[in-house]
Design a protein that fits this description.
9 helices, binds magnesium ion, six-stranded parallel β-sheet, alpha/beta, binds 2-phosphoglycolic acid, DNA polymerase, domain 1, single chain, Rossmann fold, two-stranded antiparallel ribbon, 235 residues
Length: 235
C-alpha cells in the first residue's frame, strides 16, 4: 500500500493503542469477564464475544457483559460491577497476555531512529502500566495515557492530544497506531496520521476504517512510518 503524498509530513513520535495493538490481551479480559459473570450466576461468554466488547474502556465492557447476560442493573449496581471487574482484572492483567510478534524489536527500531514513543489506551492506568512492565516494554514508553487519565476516553481526541503534549510533540508530527474503529475515529478527530494494525480487535473490514496506512506484521511498521514521513523523513 503506498501512502498518498498529500498526507506525508515529518514524524517525530509514534503513539500506540494497547489492547489488540501492542498486546493480545483479550484472553485475560475474557478470563476476568467469565469470573465476573460466574459470580453473578451466569455462564461466561466465549473469547470472541468478549473480544468484540473491548475497545471503549471497562465501564462499556461491563455494561456489554451484563446486557449479554440479560441482567438488568440500575446505575449503582453497574458501578459496583465495574469496581468488581477492576479488582478481578487487576489481580493478573498479564497472565495470559502476549505481545504481538515483533513488537519489542519494532519499538527498539523506532526508538533507535530517534522517534519518541507513547501509549494511549482506554484500559485504566494501573493495569496498563502493569502490562507494559510485565511484558518488558515499559522502558520504551515515555508517556502513558489510560482510560481513566482524563474525564474523556477515545474516540474523544483529548487523550491522544494529551499523550502528544506529554511527549512535547505537535499532533501533526505524530503517527497513532491502533487496531480499532475507536482508534481511527480518535486519530481523525485529533488530526493525527493513523496506521491501522489489521490483526487486532476491529469489527469492520479494513476498507471501512479510515486510515493513512495499514500493516499486518510488526516487521512492516518502521517502513510504513518512513513512508508517512515522506521526503522530510523522521525528525
Ligand atoms: O480497555 C479497552 O476497552 C480497550 O483498550 P485499548 O484502547 O487499549 O484498545
Ligand atoms: Mg485496541
Amino acid at each position: 500500500m503506498s501512502v498518498d503524498r498529500a498526507v506525508q509530513r515529518p514524524v517525530k513520535a509514534v503513539i500506540f493503542d494497547l489492547d489488540g495493538t501492542l498486546v493480545h490481551s483479550a484472553p485475560d479480559i475474557h478470563a476476568a469477564a467469565v469470573r465476573l459473570l460466574g459470580e453473578r450466576g451466569h455462564q461466561g461468554p466465549d473469547l470472541a464475544t468478549v473480544t468484540g466488547f473491548v475497545g471503549n474502556g471497562v465501564p462499556a465492557l461491563v455494561e456489554r457483559l451484563l446486557a449479554w447476560a440479560k441482567e438488568a442493573v440500575d446505575p449503582s449496581a453497574l458501578k459496583a460491577a465495574i469496581g468488581r471487574f477492576h479488582q478481578i482484572y487487576n489481580e493478573a492483567p498479564s497472565a495470559l497476555s502476549e505481545l504481538y510478534d515483533g513488537v519489542s524489536g519494532t519499538l527498539e527500531t523506532l526508538s533507535a531512529a530517534g522517534l519518541r514513543l507513547g501509549v494511549c489506551t482506554n484500559k485504566p492506568l494501573v493495569p496498563a502500566r502493569q502490562l507494559l512492565a510485565d511484558l518488558g516494554i515499559d522502558g520504551y514508553i515515555e508517556v502513558l495515557v489510560g482510560g481513566d487519565s482524563l474525564p474523556q476516553r477515545k474516540p474523544d481526541p483529548r487523550p491522544l492530544l494529551h499523550a502528544a503534549e506529554g511527549l512535547g510533540v505537535a499532533p501533526e508530527a505524530i503517527v497513532f497506531v491502533g487496531d480499532s474503529e475507536v482508534d481511527a475515529a480518535t486519530a481523525q478527530a485529533a488530526g493525527v496520521l493513523f496506521a491501522l494494525f489489521a490483526e487486532g480487535y476491529r469489527k469492520s473490514p479494513l476498507a471501512m476504517i479510515p486510515h493513512q496506512t495499514s500493516f499486518s506484521q510488526y516487521g512492516q511498521l518502521h517502513s510504513r512510518v518512513v513512508e508517512l514521513a515522506g521526503a522530510e523523513g523522521l525528525k
